[in-house]
């Protein structure tokens, strides 16, 4: 895992980055690896890939963070990327794999109310995707909206959102 994280930092080759991110994502399916990746500063390395100009690299980074977000301690570190993930949802092509990967991560990050406030500005976008997206996109958006709606503090934001 340490070598994969170092490889991500050392290369600019998108194909190598994608493969390293896929391997880290698969490794994160095991809870013991989630802690190891966090302790190796892997969350910030993977999070840094969200700024990459290559959509497939961003998508693989989102998938890795999604798997890593099943851990409360990891969520505490991943939450710094929520605004950027929301921007990815808004700027990604409609119904794209990149958009869906970002929505999956937001679903996990919105299970508790801890980070809902970081998603408020994206509520209009979520509602737009609900009306314009494919069924697959709509399902992912609904998961986020259901999580947000479970928080009474979000009620006014959800009801006042301009679509």
Automatic annotation (TrEMBL):
Question: Principal localization?
Answer: mitochondrion
Q: Which GO terms describe its cellular component?
A: mitochondrial outer membrane
**Cell compartment(s), UniProt:** Mitochondrion outer membrane
Q: Answer yes or no on keyword Mitochondrion.
A: yes
* The keyword Glycoprotein appears for this protein: no
- Residue ranges occupied by any Armadillo repeat-containing domain in the UniProt entry: 1-163
UniProt keywords (A-Z) are:
Membrane, Mitochondrion, Mitochondrion outer membrane, Transmembrane, Transmembrane helix
What is the superkingdom listed in this entry's lineage? Eukaryota
InterPro entries the UniProt entry points to: ARM-like, ARM-rpt_dom, ARM-type_fold, Armcx_regulator
Indicate how the chain sits in the lipid bilayer: Single-pass membrane protein
Q: What is this protein called?
A: ARM10 protein
Gene name of the encoded protein: Armc10
